[in-house]
Every structure is written in C-alpha cells, then in structure tokens.
Design brief:
Elements (H helix, E strand, L loop, with lengths): L6 H6 L4 H16 L7 H15 L2 H13 L4 H15 L1 H15 L17 E2 L9 E9 L2 E8 L8 E2 L4 E14 L5 E4 L3 E4 L5 E5 L5 E8 L8 E2 L5 H9 L2
Antiparallel strand pairs: 1-2, 2-3, 3-9, 4-10, 5-6, 5-7, 5-8, 5-9
Helix pairs in contact: 3-4, 3-5, 4-6, 5-6
The protein binds manganese (II) ion.
C-alpha cells in the first residue's frame, strides 16, 4: 500500500518544486513504499527515533501522527522514547513525551494495534463488532475475497454465518473463535480455522491482546458473504478470558 504523499507539493511546490518532487515521489513514493523490505510500522519507528535524536520536534510530531496511522501503538512509542532517553538525551525525552501525549491522547485504545505483516487498513467499526476493528482487503475474485481483519483488545463480532464457509489464517496476537455446539477455541498466530458453510460462529480478540487474521470468504449464490445474528454472551466471553 504505497503512501500517497503530497506534503512536498502542498507546502513547497511553488518555492522548491525539485525538493517537493523528491519528497513526494522519491522519499515517500519509492523508499517508504518498499514494504517488502521494511514495514511501514518499522519505517515509522526508525524515522521517529532519528528525528527525536536530532531534536527535530516539529517533524517528530508529523511523523508520530504517521506512525500512529502505520500501527505504532502508544505503548510502543512510550517505549521508544524511554529507550532513546539514554542515547539521545534526557531533555529530548521530556519534549518527546509531550508530543506522545498530544498525538496519542490519554486513551491507550486510540492507538492502532499491531497487525501482522499486512497493512492495518481502515476502521471497520460498526454494529457487528463490540469495539474497534480494522479491515484491509488483500485481494478480490468474482467469487469472493481475502481481507486482513484486526480486532482491538476485547473486541469480537456477532454470531454469524457464511453461505459458503470461511477460512481464517491468524497472523498476529491471540483471540478466540467459536462454532455453535463447540467450546471456544483459543487462537494464536499460525492457527487456521475452517468454518463450514452456514455454520454459526464468532471470532475476535482476547481481552489482553489484539488479534489479526486473514479472512478468506467466498460469496454465496446471492452475492452475500455474511449473515449477522446476535452477539455472543458477554459473561461467557469474560469467563473465557479469565480462565485463560
Ligand atoms: Mn466469520
């Protein structure tokens, strides 16, 4: 997912068109977009580290906002600044923490979770999830598609069915999946769930971890992929996580 960057042209296009071109098309267009070499998440971490080390706080604030979009969590950013306080200087850490508070706010749930090797995608909150979720479609065919779905801690979806079934490939974190009539199954990165056609099931994160899976979902004969039902019992979900 290449970043479409226009900050150079927007701010300096009239004054320094060559610099603007290099910023937008080469730095962001060609270097940042090499996600097969280094993820956007990791590129954001090292960029923020370099900017903090030099005390370039206006640029650090911009890149902290980008880091948040690229899935760097508030906890990770706090750890980055704490670590660098020894290498870059104590006063710089004080200034950087002020920016962490400004960018991430007080609420840890505002930060995007880890999301495995694929992009986090866009918010996919809605009436079928108990909390925040994100979706990045990875590929579509006429008969269905594959999407990277990330659930924040404590977020799970309604009981639902897929007319032609669904395969879930867990890529990060851990969580749960339950098919009707069976106990819930704990999921970790590397686990595979095969859900038969029209089987009632639900899936989501654990209370102490986000979970990301790739969902491969064929379309039914009427073109629909999912039929949403009621939410699982909240107490049963809480108990699953307590006993875990
Ligand atoms: Mn499903």
């Amino acid at each position: 997912m290449a970043i479409k960057q226009t900050a150079g042209r927007d701010n300096l296009g009239d004054l320094a068109p060559v610099f603007a071109h290099l910023n937008d098309d080469v730095l962001f267009g060609e270097v940042w977009s090499r996600e097969d070499s280094l993820s956007l998440h990791d590129r954001s971490m090292i960029t923020c580290a370099a900017l903090m080390a030099q005390g370039l706080f206006p640029q650090l604030e911009s890149h902290m906002n980008l880091a948040k979009k690229n899935g760097v969590t508030r906890d990770e950013m706090v750890e980055l600044v704490t670590h660098l306080s020894f290498y870059a200087g104590w006063p710089k850490a004080w200034s950087a923490f002020g920016l962490v508070r400004k960018v991430y706010g007080e609420d840890a749930t505002e930060s995007a979770p880890l999301h495995g090797p694929f992009p986090l995608g866009d918010p996919a909150d809605g009436p079928n999830f108990t909390g925040h979720a994100w979706l990045q479609m990875l590929g579509n065919l006429p008969a269905g598609g594959a999407g990277n779905v990330t659930f924040e801690r404590g977020c799970y979806n309604r009981w639902h069915t897929h007319p032609k079934g669904q395969i879930l490939l867990v890529t990060a974190g851990h969580g749960w999946e339950q098919q009707e009539g069976r106990p819930a199954r704990e999921l970790h990165a590397g686990d595979v769930v095969v859900c038969p056609p029209n089987m009632r099931h639900w899936h989501g994160a654990a209370t102490d971890s986000t979970m990301t899976h790739i969902a491969i979902t064929p379309l039914g004969d009427d073109g629909s992929a999912v039929d949403w039902l009621e939410f699982p019992d909240a107490d049963a979900y809480a108990k699953l996580n307590e006993n875990n």
